[in-house]
Automatic annotation (TrEMBL):
Keywords: Signal. It comes from Niastella koreensis. It comes from the Bacteria. This is GDSL family lipase. The keyword Signal applies. Residues 53-213 form the SGNH hydrolase-type esterase domain.
Amino acid sequence: MKQRLILLLTLMMAAGAALAQTEPVDSSYANGYYVERMKFFDQLHPAPKPVVFLGNSITEAGPWSEILPGINVVNRGISGDNSWGVYNRLNQVIALKPVKIFLLIGVNDLKRGVPIEYIVANYDRIAATLRTALPKSTLYLQSVLPVAEPMLANIYAKISNEKIRRLNDGLKQVAQKYNCPFIDLYHEVFVDEKGQMPAPYTTDGLHCKPAGYLAWAAYLKKKKYL
């Protein structure tokens, strides 16, 4: 009996030590810009039944109304946002009662070194919430875009196209689980023959130039997502 107790205590100590050595995951999101952007959204009153583009700086910088004329587009991008931040602000999106939601999030999670399974789990929570709250709306899960690795600044050192591809594989599974269209922007629009985002499409290896947004919008229209 004593030997069993000693063994149990030893296993518990080993498990505790392993847990203590695990690097904590940075799930923070509510910085000053995020809070101000949320306040800004609260003061807007878009037309009914919009098409919502939801995401981070890549979404926020998109000139969606100009490149998608005639479509009631609402931009809900927040620079620096991550998958926790999007999940936290779903009530604002739900209140709009959109007909379509185009979601793109995750690269800032990778920037922080967040494990891919955490990001996929957050996508699962996001998809489950939106499908329950907005059963008549269509949620489109857009793949995370490739990066031009040689162009990336040191602050993006934890981001790689190999990680992005693995993340996108997880997002495909979430899309299948919730019967959501998966839009493979990575392979269909933004990756070149070298496996990188083409220089004409990006400002810094990660963010898009106007040419990138034009190609993005053209693909959405070509596939009749819009």
